[in-house]
Amino acid sequence: MRTDAPDPVDARIGARLAELRAGHGWSLGELAERSGVSRSTLSRAERAEISATASLLNRLCHVYGRTMSQLLSEVEAEPAPLVRAADQQIWRDPAAGFVRRSVSPPHAGLRGELVEGRLTRGADIAYDRPPVSGLEQHLWVLDGSLEVTVADTSSVLDAGDCLRMRVFGPTRFRCPGPAEARYVLAVVRP
Q1: Does CATH place domain 85-188 in 2.40.160.100?
Q2: Edge-to-edge strands of the sheet including 171-174?
Q3: Which of 60, 74, 130, 172 has the CB geometry, 3.0–4.6 Å to 149, for a possible disulfide?
Q4: Please, where are the H alpha helices in the chain?
Q5: What's the pLDDT tens digit per position in 41-71?
């Protein structure tokens, strides 16, 4: 048994394994039967008393239906709490007249993020479906005017207006002008 503090990565892996088991409502005994790993080994790995081996993680990934990469990305170190404006990722689609800035510090394990969007006058972007069904979005217009269509409902938002939406189907963002539209989109995964 370990007498020193567990390795931080082992501790995060152990905590994630315990979360996954609890999320499925399984006891250690049930997980042992499904994975072929002893209850004591599972318990010690969840408490970070041992370092999980690749073989152990592979068996558990199989049971939980995820890849090793997915599991490991879920236990990355906590994201940096601060990302400077100069370091925020910017993606441009000049043909569509769209600029997207990822404002939030990136991290695969977080459910929410902030995005700044800019649409040039006349820009019209349609999405046939959300990247994740049921995605919650809060769109706050900072400058200009923006027409947003969610399913069959359109709303025109001006500076200061905020629209909350849960997205299951098509959406459309259109900047009617006369100036560009600048907005903040808070995105929360279900």
Answers
A1: no
A2: 124-127, 171-174, 145-150, 153-158
A3: 172
A4: 8-24, 28-35, 39-46, 54-64, 68-74
A5: 999 999 999 888 777 887 888 888 877 767 7
